[in-house]
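Holo prediction — C2E.
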Amino acid sequence: LAKQAGDSRVRFFAHALQEAASARLGLRNDLRRALQTPRDAAQQQLLLHYQPQVDAQGQLLGVEALVRWQHPARGLIPPGAFIAEAEASGLIVPLGNWVLEEAASCLERWQRDPALQPWASTLSMAVNVSPRQFREPDFIARIEDVLARTGIDALSLELELTESVVADDLEATLEKMELLRRHGVRFALDDFGTGYSSLAYLKRLPIDTLKIDRSFVMDIDAPDQSGPGKRPAVLIDAIVAMAHQLDLRVLAEGVETETQLTRLAHAGCDIFQGYYFSRPLPEAALCAWAQEIQAK
Ligand code: C2E
Ligand code: MG
Ligand code: MG
Ligand code: MG
């Protein structure tokens, strides 16, 4: 009897594994097809949402482009549900290129529209770049090409890298970043504090902005700062002090409450991003949001 139960459990797990594998394969094939659809086609399933980044006075400084997938059967899929699969399959490279292209042409549209000034003319556009995409031999050429074709100012393009890119191969990463920086492109270090944060490399990297991960921000207004896994508020003070010492701007991610904002501003954070200001928005909604902020 025990053996029988064991067998059926094995069959159950084998079946579950098979299901998971075929779901991943389905997702991969669907994503491949979505990427083959022309960017401007009506049936294009990929899209970008834009989340505002503001200063302590609430002035709009930039937006972060965040990819979404409008799947015909599954509905709107957040990046957390397909970026890992895209990384594993290599589709992250064409996906990243798609995002770069779309974000740049969106910024170009905004900059050219007289109705969207002056906020659009000084706006920065932050684009997430995956490690694999950054390591592509033609990554620099792609950026040059996008800048040339759209005519957007390189200074308005901010590439978000994570610590894992850097940890991989510091020398190669540094060289690539320096080359891009010569074009005027800026860099932000995303999700800071979750990886192998090393002060040694932080000092050497040509980054402009350090994005403090949401997990630090989440805990800043928690009454108990001593529990396991908690990141005490004093860490934020330390990160800000260190970043400013290195001439970096500090952006706090995932600001949801006024209390968090007040504490982060008090700690010296320069830029804020989070639901407290706005969720990531479709293009038209972002423009409406920015117009309204500007009118205040
Ligand atoms: P990220 O780059 O750290 O982006 C911030 C994430 O936090 C976004 O999730 C955003 O919607 C969410 N967020 C912003 N403010 C708040 C807040 O106040 N509260 C909470 N709970 N969440 C907030 P999203 O859009 O689901 O993206 C998740 C991750 O997927 C991103 O994290 C980024 O690592 C990745 N990703 C998104 N778009 C791209 C892309 O185009 N390329 C690559 N390689 N990765 C991307
Ligand atoms: Mg990001
Ligand atoms: Mg982040
Ligand atoms: Mg994050």
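READOUT: Strands lie at 46-55, 60-71, 75-77, 124-128, 157-162, 186-192, 209-212, 249-252, 271-272.
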